[in-house]
Amino acid sequence: MATMTSLGIGSGLDLETMLSQLKAAEQTRLSPYNKLQASYKAKISSWGQISSSLSSLQTSVKKMSSDAFNTLNVGSNKAFTAKATSEASADSHEITVSQLATAHKVKTSTFEDANKDLGVTDGGTRTLTISQENGKSFTVTLADDETSLNDIAKAINKEGGDVKANVQRTDGGYQLVLSSKTTGSDGMIGVSVKGDDNLAGFMTCNNGGAAEDENGLPTNDDRMTIVTEAKDAKLRVDGSDFTRSSNTISDIITGVTLDLKSPSEANEDGNLKSEQLTLSKDTSAIKSSMKDFVKQYNALLTQTSAASKYVPVDTNGMLDSDVATQNGQNGALVGDSMLRGLVGDIRSTVNSVYGDATAEYSALADLGIKIDPTTGQMTLDESKLDEAIASEPDQIANMFQDRNGQQGISSRLNEIITSFIGDDKTSIDGQIKNTTDGLDSQLKIMETQIAKTQKLIDGQVERYRVQFQNLDATMAKLSGMSNSVTAMLTGLN
């Protein structure tokens, strides 16, 4: 039987339109699956946004438990700068810097050509051992054709040790300079040579290098001369003397890192003047952290309100036999019990009383933070907050931080948030992940079901097409027979 290229040619019927209508009717079988798929995706997306808002609030909460109340202003000084962590305490310290730590540097005598081999050419090898006072060392092996200043520097740097080599061009020629990457006496450089008397004659350095005499020659057995001595930093802090190998010092004042810049200035009598390091509480950090806390809390409540939004169904004009469906403007998580629990826990926490019972400031409302009983949104009276910070910053800290075995706002909120978003460090997944994992599984099942149903629909539509093609062909054949009979009857007349 010949296949029609277009339905309806043989029969004259609009079979293409009929087939399209049947196909559309079949596609409605996918509607419930598509709605569920869209619902799962919307819920996963909504939980993802809420999780992000919770993470931002948690970051703000953690600041309120430590940095906000432990940030210090550090006074400026000439001989040193200082940085303070949350472990530091508000205090003042008398500091005098008498000497900076310097890195050891030594150099060879000068040579006319930096590429000319300077060692013994006997077909053997020689070794250079570069050592430091701290016990670190490395060895370089050189062949006959690797004893020029440039080759020696290249070989030393290739080892990647704590001593750097470079060749300098001076008015008198080229010289090899070795520089310690470690400051202080710990970085003092030593050089020994085996297997080559020529190299040993200008590179041996066992005593930290020699000073040059008026003729530029070493004054002791060391064949390399001092460019910069290996010196330790020396300073006096609160009446005690300290020696350190580095100019960056963090083990004298708890929570404070000193960065020495220069020796202290001298008095008229020649004695060094001490400088005062002042560490004072930075109350501006409390306010900025509090404002961020309010901002992140409100952002979360805005997100949860949108997710749980409920819009009643408009039943106007509906018949008794009609079935009402959910309003499309509803939030993705409307009626979700876990979301209600999350919002309830957080709102209950921020509305509670903390700190000492007799304290002037023991609730957020005392700090100028009002909470709308309907929406849960916070508003901040900055002038009232400024007054509280100025008068009783410790009482504010007692509200947010754990004290005397009692939890503050920060730790309570942190526990709640962690229970929902989890913690990678402690391998806690959190309720949101467990929920979205379940939704992901349902989404995959739904996608599989949609694919199977679509395959059935496509098969059914194809069967309709074949039936219509057969109908078209049959009717075309009958039409032809009818025409033939009509013609025969006409001929008989």
List the helices and strands and how they pair.
Layout: H1 15-27, H2 31-65, H3 67-70, E1 72-74, E2 80-84, E3 91-99, E4 103-107, E5 126-132, E6 137-142, H4 149-158, E7 163-170, E8 173-183, E9 189-194, H5 197-203, E10 225-228, E11 233-237, E12 240-244, E13 248-249, E14 256-260, E15 275-281, H6 283-307, H7 337-350, E16 369-371, E17 378-380, H8 382-391, H9 393-400, H10 409-421, H11 431-492
Antiparallel strand pairs: 1-15, 2-14, 3-11, 3-15, 4-8, 4-10, 5-6, 5-9, 7-8, 11-12, 13-14, 16-17
Helix pairs in contact: 1-11, 2-6, 2-10, 2-11, 7-10
Domain Flagellar hook-associated protein 2 C-terminal: 230-478
Subunit structure: Homopentamer.
Domain Flagellar hook-associated protein 2 N-terminal: 11-104
Protein architecture, described:
This protein has a five-stranded antiparallel sheet, with no helix packed on it. The protein has three domains: 1-71 and 282-309 and 328-487; 72-100 and 232-281, no CATH class; 103-228, Immunoglobulin-like, CATH 2.60.40. The protein starts with 14 loop residues before the first helix and ends with a helix. The chain contains eleven helices and 17 strands. It has 493 residues and is an alpha+beta fold. The protein is flat, with a radius of gyration of 43 Å. It has helices at residues 15-27, 31-65, 67-70, 149-158, 197-203, 283-307, 337-350, 382-391, 393-400, 409-421, 431-492, and strands at 72-74, 80-84, 91-99, 103-107, 126-132, 137-142, 163-170, 173-183, 189-194, 225-228, 233-237, 240-244, 248-249, 256-260, 275-281, 369-371, 378-380. The longest helix has 62 residues, at 431-492. 41% of the residues lie in helices and 19% in strands. Residues 11-104 form the Flagellar hook-associated protein 2 N-terminal domain. Pfam families: Flagellin_IN, FliD_C, FliD_N. InterPro entries: Flagellin_hook_IN_motif (IPR010810), FliD (IPR040026), FliD_C (IPR010809), FliD_N (IPR003481).
